[in-house]
Amino acid sequence: MVPVQIRSQPQTYYMQLDTGYSETIFYAVPDTVKNALIGDFKGSGPFYLPLYVAGNLVTMSGIKIKTSPAASMDGPYPEIGTIGQNIILARVVFIDFVHQRIAFIKKEDVKPSYLEGVSFVPMHYRDDQFFIPVTINGVSYPDDYFYDSGSSMFTLITTSAVWQQITGSTASNPKNDILHVTQWGSIATLLGAKLLDRLTIGPLNIDSPMVYFQQSGGVAGSSLAGANYPVKGIIGNAAFYDCCMIVIDAPNNRFGIAVKHPVH
């Protein structure tokens, strides 16, 4: 979750960072928050919403407040929306999973010291996704898997056919892991098994991580099998937990990884 502040609100709110989502949206927030958001658009256009994301000022030329799902305002981390690609594409995003820090920095403000220890691979932005090269079981895939920060609990998600090939398992295997997860208010069922060998992303090697595919349920069109563009799978945040800082450098079409703690 990313801490954010609205210009006219003293409270800190939180938003999910979802690199797989094209827009930045707000959920069905209480009227006090909604009025604060809309209030920033009073006067003559063009309109720009000032939003402080992780302490960095960003602006948006549009705003969308959804009627559902409802914002989760209870607890210490009131969640009011999702940060999407319209903010990410114009900045260099640093996500330090080891120290739980995040920064959104303009390209011209990135200092060389920020990139010490970072190894970069080419990143291809196509079909509204950030595709990065990976190697699975010794086979290289230069443009088939995209990084999705919204898939936080997963290392690798793929289709049923690819899943069977790279795990050696079948959907009827009683040893499969079964997960029921929420997708925008809908429940999806995913089956998981361990990769036969190794997943490599730049300098990062992960031996036999869990791999999942969506068996049923979920939001319409959410399954990779129904994608209308060429794709084999998704790399999620779990690949980088406890070990890495990643850099999503959309202005320079590259994806960086700094391995702070080796993965065993």
CATH architecture of the largest domain: Beta Barrel
pLDDT below 50 for ≥5 consecutive residues: which ranges? 43-47
**Relative strand content:** over 45%
CATH superfamily of the largest domain: Acid Proteases
- CATH hierarchy, class of the largest domain: Mainly Beta
Task: Report the total helices.
Answer: 3
Beginning-to-end CA distance, first to last residue: 26 Å
CATH topology of the largest domain: Cathepsin D, subunit A, domain 1
Structural class: mainly beta
| Sequence of secondary-structure elements | EEEHEEEEHEEEEEEEHEEEEEEEE
Largest sheet: 10 strands, mixed
User: Radius of gyration, rounded?
Assistant: 19 Å
Helix content: under 10%
Counting DSSP E segments of at least 2 residues, the number of strands comes to 22
Global morphology: globular
Please indicate the count of domains: 2
Chain-wise SSE layout:
Elements lengths: L1 E5 L6 E5 L7 E4 L2 H9 L9 E5 L2 E5 L4 E6 L8 E5 L1 H4 L3 E5 L4 E5 L13 E4 L1 E3 L2 E8 L2 E9 L8 E3 L1 H8 L9 E7 L2 E9 L3 E4 L2 E4 L2 E8 L15 E3 L8 E6 L4 E6 L5
Parallel strand pairs: 2-7, 3-6, 13-20, 14-19
Antiparallel strand pairs: 1-2, 1-4, 3-7, 4-5, 8-9, 8-21, 10-22, 11-12, 12-13, 12-17, 14-20, 15-16, 16-19, 17-18, 21-22
Describe the structure.
The protein is mainly beta and 264 residues long. The chain folds into 2 domains: 87 residues, Cathepsin D, subunit A, domain 1; 127 residues, Acid Proteases (Cathepsin D, subunit A, domain 1, Beta Barrel), CATH 2.40.70. It is 8% helix and 45% strand. It is built from 3 helices and 22 strands. Strands 11, 12, 13, 14, 15, 16, 17, 18, 19 and 20 form a 10-stranded mixed sheet that branches. The protein has a 7-stranded mixed sheet with strand order 5-4-1-2-7-3-6. Strand 12 and strand 13 form a beta hairpin. The relative contact order is 0.17.
